[in-house]
Design brief:
This protein has helices spanning about 20-40, 45-65, 65-70, 90-105, 155-170; strands at about 5, 10-15, 75-80, 90, 105-115, 120-130, 130-140, 145-155. Helix content is about 40%, strand content about 35%. It is an alpha+beta fold and about 170 residues long.
């Protein structure tokens, strides 16, 4: 009978005919053992770790858990605001800005997300004062899975203007 080599289990499996019950049980056990071994082994691709970090980011934003959100930022994070032409740098500065945004954004709901390696996009709908808006968080993570770069975009223009006005009023020195 024809055989093939199963690369997952390093065993040979008959292709035609029936296998003796003991051979089937042995093959199932070896495959199960291989899957369990692979599941327990740290993944070579950090994709699962990154996805878990993005779920943590999303949950922290949705729960308005600013302490948890700030811990997900890299110490040298770069933040590109939709209302500024230059980025903000550093975990403390960006954490403070995000805490202020949390006061301005109401009814924030994430409606979609995309993942690709160390890059994520979270699409949201939001209310800013009496304006409804939508936007995206574009996120790049570093090797540790922390947010290295965060770019936020908001539309339509009336929502962006409302955001700029409210952020300006809150961040203006008194």
């Amino acid at each position: 009978p024809a055989t093939r080599h199963d690369t997952r289990t390093s065993s040979t499996v008959r292709m035609r005919g029936t296998l003796p019950r003991a051979a089937v049980a042995e093959n199932v056990a070896s495959v199960t053992h291989a899957w369990a071994r692979d599941a327990a082994r740290p993944t070579r691709e950090p994709r699962l770790r990154y996805a878990a970090r993005m779920q943590s980011f999303r949950r922290a934003v949705e729960a308005r858990d600013l302490a948890a959100l700030t811990l997900l930022l890299a110490p040298d994070v770069e933040f590109w605001s939709p209302v500024s032409h230059q980025p903000y740098h550093g975990r403390e500065v960006v954490g403070f800005i995000l805490a202020t945004v949390a006061q301005v954004f109401t009814e924030l709901t994430y409606v979609d997300e995309l993942e690709s390696g160390t890059h994520s996009m979270l699409r949201f709908v939001v209310r800013i004062g009496d304006r409804r808006g939508e936007g995206v968080d574009l996120i790049e993570r570093n090797g540790d899975g922390l947010v290295q770069k965060l770019t936020v975009m908001v539309r339509p223009l009336s929502a962006l203007q409302a955001l700029a006005a409210q952020m300006g009023a809150r961040l203006q020195p008194s």
